[in-house]
Model the fold of this input.
Amino acid sequence: MALCVRKWKKVKNAVQILASVADRIVTDFGATPVFISMQHPDDLRFSEKVLKQMKQKGYILSQRYTVDETLSVMGNMSLVIGMRCIR
Done:
């Protein structure tokens, strides 16, 4: 399962919320969360905070990838969850 997360500036406990959601998906569906940064390095730093709060195991793709590489990785996931907030 790919998670493409972004910091919510107006939600103070966004890290805890997203960590809880990711943990729940792991326990309910047996998925392995893989965090993918769409805007490097900002999304990477936020993903690291979410993963640190999770109780379940997950992974972060920490390198910067080309569009084709990113689409290939996402295309091989059983589920992709992305978020983009409008300012």
In short: The radius of gyration is 12 Å. The longest strand covers residues 2-4. The chain has a mean pLDDT of 92.
